Amino acid sequence: MSEAEFTEQDDERRDDPSQAAEPRRRILIVDDDPDFLVVAEAALAAHGFQVERASGGLRGVFLATQDVPDVILCDLRMPGIDGFVVAEALRADPATQHVAIFACTGRRDLEARAALNASAFDGVLVKPVDWDSAARLLREIVGLRRP
């Protein structure tokens, strides 16, 4: 087969919707802990997600509004603006108000749960995160929120 024939076959495959791979779902992780960012990115990428990282709340809001992700995982306690402010800012923006936002926290107390229930978060992932369970949950969420 000539190079031109290979190219034609490749073009035909790209044009055939049945040959197109399902798009990778995008997750933005917002956390000031660089170790958590590295572990979370590796774990979620291994489950087929495309991951972007933000090392703080302000950067997270900026990245989310520049290229809207499918899901946002956001730490609650960060210097500068905390996770509650991040979630409220994203809910106030028409471009990001529909995005699923999950708090990531090590707090397990009832006071923290009550604050989360009254907040702009869709759910919570408790640290240390079970990434296999989290990936299943996130797949379900993006399946419900995206066509």
Topology:
Blueprint lengths: L2 H13 L10 E5 L3 H13 L3 E5 L2 H10 L4 E5 L7 H10 L7 E6 L4 H8 L5 E4 L4 H15 L2
Parallel strand pairs: 1-2, 1-3, 3-4, 4-5
Organism: Sorangium cellulosum (Polyangium cellulosum)
Pfam family, one: Response_reg
GO biological process, one term: phosphorelay signal transduction system
Structural overview:
With 147 residues, the chain is of the alpha/beta class. The chain contains six helices and five strands. The chain has one domain: Rossmann fold (3-Layer(aba) Sandwich). 47% of the residues lie in helices and 17% in strands. 26% of the residues are buried. The chain has a five-stranded parallel sheet with strand order 2-1-3-4-5, with helices on both faces. The protein has helices spanning 3-15, 34-46, 57-66, 83-92, 110-117, 131-145; strands at 26-30, 50-54, 71-75, 100-105, 123-126. Residues 1-20 have low confidence and may be disordered.
Distance from first to last alpha carbon: 39 Å
Structural class comes to alpha/beta
Please compute the radius of gyration using only Cα atoms.
Answer: 18 Å
Quick one: how many beta strands? Answer: 5
Count the domains.
1
DSSP summary: helix tally = 6
Q: How would you state the average pLDDT, rounded?
A: 83
SS strand fraction: 15-25%
Residue ranges: pLDDT <50 for 5 or more in a row?
1-20
Largest sheet: number of strands, sense, barrel closure: 5 strands, parallel
Shape: globular
Name of the CATH homologous superfamily: Response regulator
Question: Helix coverage percent of residues?
Answer: 40-55%
- The H/E string reads HEHEHEHEHEH
* The CATH C-level class name: Alpha Beta
Annotated CATH topology: Rossmann fold
Strand order of the largest sheet: 2-1-3-4-5
CATH architecture annotation name? 3-Layer(aba) Sandwich
